[in-house]
């Protein structure tokens, strides 16, 4: 059974006003924070689960990670909240490491404004060639994951009209977004070397493809999702991504070729998913023509059903997807909170409670 792990980035906010607080360094100064890591800005932190085989264990670790981060944030007078962007205006402050200083110098406003929180899902692969074969085959299925995770409608104090504005902001980095087919591990590594040789991307950690080979672990890392407001939605995403990886690996071993859909079409699919989330129409991963969002995500589940059944994950995946489609993702919760009182502070305070409620 393939190991799966999750990295979640959370905002650090003032518990009274909902504005972001630059207290990451204070949180990390406390002992017992081995699972916590600094990010680009001091108003956010990341935690990571350990690799898991069982979905139940992964769910437990996600909840424990959120609770642990929330407790540590409260110890310095802040709250941790699973929002992919700050609803309130924010002027982020850089984490002062040599690498982040270089990023700020090289990328200017792109780095300065990049206060976004994502969810990165790692799934084990057996080799570079298997990993690249997986990346080639899951490309059309990544846009629906953006729609499922949409949790960033507000940007710099206003409604962006997007379900995931984080994905738009993240797309400013020069290597971000969908990729063309690679065809082999050697071709993938050759492209990475060529990108690094331009001296535009600072290091391999800045290869920000929507799905990439991790430079630290023997995994495929899927990077398209917003951090989810609800922990259950993170579990669903991890379940679906592992199902996609297993399905793609089986297709590769069986000699079934990947869909040759061009990257510009995939970019349009990702844009549409970022724009409307589950509320509109997505590009169907098979036909690449518009279809109702609910139909597309249900087709995604059907596509990975054989793999999920073999992994023992089908029943929880069906239940979690039904739950998400019924209540909506974080974007619906944020807009509902704003509609009730017209207060972006209330949006954040409501989200604080939902970050650690299950």
UniProtKB/TrEMBL annotation:
Lineage: superkingdom: Bacteria
UniProt name for this protein: Putative glutamate--cysteine ligase 2
EC number, UniProt record: 6.3.2.2
One Gene Ontology term of the molecular function aspect: ligase activity
InterPro entries: GCL_type2/YbdK_subfam (IPR050141), GCS2 (IPR006336), Gln_synth/guanido_kin_cat_dom (IPR014746), YbdK (IPR011793)
Protein role: ATP-dependent carboxylate-amine ligase which exhibits weak glutamate--cysteine ligase activity.
Uppermost EC category: ligase
Reactions that this protein is recorded to catalyse: L-cysteine + L-glutamate + ATP = gamma-L-glutamyl-L-cysteine + ADP + phosphate + H(+)
Recorded family membership: Belongs to the glutamate--cysteine ligase type 2 family. YbdK subfamily.
The entry's keywords: ATP-binding, Ligase, Nucleotide-binding
